[in-house]
Structure formats: structure tokens, C-alpha cells
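Worked example 2:
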Amino acid sequence: MERGPPTGSGTINHTQKVESAKDPVIEGLIASVKSLTEAVTRRQMGRRNRSRSPQRPRSKSQNRSQMSKQSGQFCWYHWKFGVNSTKCMQPCAWPKQNPKAGGNE
């Protein structure tokens, strides 16, 4: 059984698809989608680069409450800055000074 040339309706549909792709509104939407896709890809790549690798251990830093317990009962400010501390949080075993003497409480 021999087949003849393609029917005209298939050619018309193909032509209609090509013409609709030339529509400025469709072209604008395609460009917008492409731009957004690229932006999302860049953002995801940036996150991957900043994330911790499985080989890199977590930071050994401790939060303030843990430091306070291990620092001889001084508040974080006195533990961190010593006599130069301008603040104090209770409980703190740092000796209080008179304001006239230039205390740093």
C-alpha cells in the first residue's frame, strides 16, 4: 500500500505554529520565562557554593549562654571585653565599680 504526499492540513497547522511563535506577545513571554529560569539557576548555584560541604565540620563557636556557664560566672560582655566592657548582664561575678570611678557596668 503506497502513501501519498502529506495532506495540506498538516502543513497549515505547522505554519500556524510558526506564525504564533512570531507573535510579539508570545516572544516577550518566552524571553521573560527564559530570563527567570536563568535567574533561578544562578540563585540556586549561589546557594550551593555557600552551603557547607559534608567534609567541613560545623563551627565550634558557642552561644552566649554556653559561654557564660564556662567563663567563671562572668556575663558575656565581661568575658569578651573584660575591663573594657560597657555593659553587663546578670548573673555576673564581675566586681561592681562606683560610677564616679569610671566603672564599666
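The chain has a mean pLDDT of 72. The two ends are 101 Å apart (CA to CA).
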